[in-house]
Fold this protein.
Amino acid sequence: MNIVISNASDKPLYLQIKEQIKEAILKGELKAGDLLPSVRAFANDIGVSVLTTRRVYDELEQEGYAVSQAGRGTFVAMGNPELLRDSKRRMVEEDMQKAIRNAKLFGITREELQQMMDILFEEED
């Protein structure tokens, strides 16, 4: 798992880390049942405090993405398929909102944007 944190970002470190772990889960890079690194090892690997890492793991667990087992570690949760589907949709919606903002900024009409989307969607098949 490759985590990139930026001190120049407006987002707090824990949030940058949590979002990247969630993205890895949603993309299938981390699979249900995978063991996450220990809090201490992960903190050392990415150069943050163990408190930051603990907060990330705690929030991932609260949101249903991870589960802790005493004496064994923290694992990617088996997951609720509907929760994962909704999270994936939210990721796509965020990208679409960005595309819409850019289209409006550059004077691209809704119809042109839809045509672009149709073409790009077809090319992916």
